[in-house]
Each structure stands twice: as structure tokens, then as C-alpha cells.
Amino acid sequence: MALRPGRTVRRIERPYTRVSQKVPRKSYVVGVPFPKTHQFEMGNKAGEFDTYLYLVADKDGQIRDNAIEAARVTSHKFLEKSLGSNYFMKILTYPHHVIREKPIATGAGADRYSQGMRLSFGKPSNRAVQAFKGKKLVELRVRESNLEIAKQALKKFALKISIPTRIIVEKWSRFFKKNYKGN
Known about the structure:
This protein is 24% helix and 25% strand. It is built from four helices and eight strands; from the N terminus they run βββαββαββαβα. A five-stranded antiparallel beta sheet has the order 1-4-7-2-8, covered by helices on one side. A three-stranded antiparallel beta sheet has the order 3-6-5. It is elongated, with a radius of gyration of 20 Å.
């Protein structure tokens, strides 16, 4: 079955998707698919960067894992081509939410196949990130001279995901790094 449009799963839902560890046969969700994104950190981890950019969600919504992977590939290619290895990008969200789909049939005999809403729990099709307003989705570290290129990369990332976002820029000085006690 083809992939449904992202707008069908954009709204945040809280279905009962139990995956039991102790008693697996009591699990309601069987066969949860692996997320498409396997690489969450790209670029130079040990680099000295003074500018941090964050892509922040402006509205609540769900972002499918294949959209995150497409956005990651696009922005990573752009950064590699423009900056080489003078950046560090990290995806801060992980797709925990399981999306289920009930197959919908059209054409002759569809009523016998679909059977309306009977047993409409659906099968797990993929995963999604549940992003609430103000949640940081991506962190990008660059030098201050590469700030405009970094903003373009985050804009390319934002075009691939299904919710509106904004970019926050923070300047980090050496004094602040020494005295910083958080994550």
C-alpha cells in the first residue's frame, strides 16, 4: 500500500498503543516498525563552534520518521557541500509514537473488504515524533561566519516536515562555556 499524505497524521492523537515487555502476548501493538532515521548526529562532534541554532516547533503536531529522514538528508547534503566538516548537527527528537492505518478499499466489492468501522484498530505502519509548541527539534552548531549558510540548511529541513517552525540563534562565548552547568 502506498504512503498516505503527511496531513493525515499531522494531528496529535493519544491512542492506546500498549507494547508489553513482561507479557508480550497481551500487547495490542504487534510488529512495531523500525524508525527510518538511524543517524542522529552528523558533522564534527569535537569542533569549536560559537553559534548554536535550533529549529523549534511553532505548533503542536506529529512528524513522521520518513519526513525527518528526508529533511536530514537534504540539510546534511547542503551543509557538506557548503561547509565541509565545519558544523555539527543533531536531531533532538526520536520517533516513539506508533502510527496505525486501517486499509481503505475503493472500487467494486470494497464494502465486503473494508467492512466499515468493524475492528478498525489498524496495523502499525510507521512511527512519528510528537512535537509540541516550543520543542527543539534540531540543533546546529557552526562558527559565526557561517551563520547564513546554517540558517539556509535549517530552512531546508523545515520545508520537509509538516509543522510550522522557527529558527533560534544563540551565541556562545568561551566564558559561558566554562561556567555552563547544564546539558
